[in-house]
Amino acid sequence: MAFSVPNPCSKSWAAMAPTADGRFCGSCQHEVVDFSRMSEAEVVAWLARPNAGNVCGFFRAGQFAAVPVMQPRWRRWLVTAVALLGLEPVLTACQSTAPQNLPAADATEQADTHATAPEGQVTIRGRVLDDSTGLAVAGAEIFIGDTKYGAVTDEQGNFSFTMPREWEAVQNGSVVLRVQGSPFVHKQQVVAIKTSPAPDPLTVRLQSMPGRGQIKGKIMRHDPPIKPPLK
Q1: What's the predicted TM-score (pTM) here?
Q2: What is the number of domains present in the chain?
Q3: CB 35 within 8 A of CB 46
Q4: Is there a domain that residue 146 lies in?
Q5: Mean pLDDT of 32-37
Q6: What distance in Å separates the CA atoms of residue 82 and residue 90, rounded to the nearest whole number?
Q7: What is the pLDDT of residues 145-204, one digit of tens each?
Q8: Which of 91, 99, 110, 228 is the most exposed, fewest CB within 10 Å of its CB?
Q9: CATH number reported for the structural domain that contains residue 187 in this entry
């Protein structure tokens, strides 16, 4: 289950009266639950309670950011061995021959552009970036039109999915994608992309939500996208 706050509230959190689970908004006469100190799993568990109903929540942006992936132990050993053997100057010399005008990998790495889909299918791939920082948006959801199908970006913001070229979601040779990042940081964005000929990799830059640092409002729940059917 995924959740978002599509219409953030502009009322002052500090001006609300404290309650057991958060604060009480005198404007809408509704309790706003303080989720800002909970993990994503704790929030999901709280929302799954039978009496949760329509919930207003208070979140801090970035609290569900992806955890950095640790390097495998063998890679760390290899780096240590290289340093101990005095091979660092060789590595540095090799690195210095690379083009100097290439952008940083964590901000520009694209999905594979060479893979091709089988006949009758089309593969759409790309990368989702934060428009304000230029960094990758991990865990962004890409939905195909109004369907439940699509993909979720990896740690580098890359996504890829394959679907039938002749599908009801494809209209006049193009398909509409709904892209949304961290639900408390970015606005949803709608992008139309041509499916023929094979589309080039797509770069989507998500804009920030109003009140990015602290998000308040009614919580909407939904299932994340699933892999499209190929028949």
Answers
A1: 0.62
A2: 1
A3: yes
A4: yes
A5: 88
A6: 10
A7: 999 999 999 999 999 999 888 888 888 888 999 999 877 778 889 999 888 888 889 999
A8: 99
A9: 2.60.40.1120
